[in-house]
Amino acid sequence: MTTDVTVVVATRNRRHQLLETLTRHAAPVIVVDNGSTDGTPAAVRAEFPEIRVIELGRNAGAGAARNAGVDATDTPFVAFADDDSYWAPGALDRAADLLRAHPGTALLAARVLVGPDRRLDPICPAMAAAPLGTAPGAPGPTVLGFLGCAVVLRREAYRRVGGFTERLGTYGEEALLAMDLAAAGWNLAYAPELVAHHLPQPDGRDPGARARVEARNRLLTAALRRPGRVVLGEMVRAWRAPRQRAALVDAARELGWALRHRRPLPSGVERNLATLERGGDGRPDHMTDTPSTPGRTAVGAGRIDG
After folding, report:
1. What gap in Å lies between CA 67 and CA 84, rounded to an integer?
2. How is the chain split into domains, by residue range?
3. pLDDT greater at residue 278 or residue 300
4. pLDDT digits (tens, 9 = 90+) for 106-142
5. Domain 5-198 superfamily per CATH
6. CB within 8 A of 217, min separation 6: which ones?
7. In CA terms, which of 50, 172, 239, 264 is 20 to 30 Å from 209?
8. DSSP, residue by residue, 116-139
9. Composition bias, kind Basic and acidic residues: at what positions (predicted)?
10. Which class for 135: exposed (0-12), middle (13-18), buried (19 or more C-beta within 10 A)?
11. Residue 244 CA to chain centroid, in angstroms?
């Protein structure tokens, strides 16, 4: 069993799927429960007494759950998984080897295989295309985004930048963490030899509500770190999508908080984000009529996963 990596699994009301995926992990696991009402914590303790379960007692969001899990670990590296994902055999041992060999790298994004037929997630070809190249001494192409269920991080780096911003809750919270790691001087890399499996299933959650939260978080992330033109672009993008217009009101309620915590990115990181966001017509994606592709969003500004 891998001893230098702890897997932190955030979950809420997916007891049956969680119990199945927990059997597949080959490293110590911490489960953080976001206020489940389906008996998840008791079921995990009964079937996996060796697994530590942290109960937040409310739906605090994926970022808060992952932060709580990282705080409870004592290993140098942390891997995230969702209740519908797991790491392939050998992946976490290899991740630990890569992070030890590349001390300037804080984050490794994995190759993601989706469903029982193991389809390659669209994020992977986009990351493999390496629009930012490969930094000297890095283990793979430079990225500025990741899937929350398929990433391994250096715990020290994660804690130095404060982890996830819990105010963002769930959906799109990865983008800000990726920016903050890069702003702190850390390298983020795609490592295709690391494989994570993702087994998403319909869960009855409201896609309109999710779209609204995603748009809100894009707006707040832009307000926290990006130039005014990007904030304006995200406002236009939300207005053009009827299901996302309410996000403008949601973000406006948080604007005071965002401005108090605003910390513009270093110019080099901002340039890299602009490079990744630039569409085929030379304009940034957020200024076009169509949304960015899943791969470009993932690599450039943080993939939204759930």
Report:
1. 19
2. 5-198, 207-302
3. 278
4. 999 999 999 999 999 999 999 999 999 999 989 999 9
5. Spore Coat Polysaccharide Biosynthesis Protein SpsA; Chain A (3.90.550.10)
6. 168, 169, 171, 172, 173, 175
7. 264
8. TTTEEPTHHHHHHT-TT---TT-S
9. 278-288
10. middle
11. 21
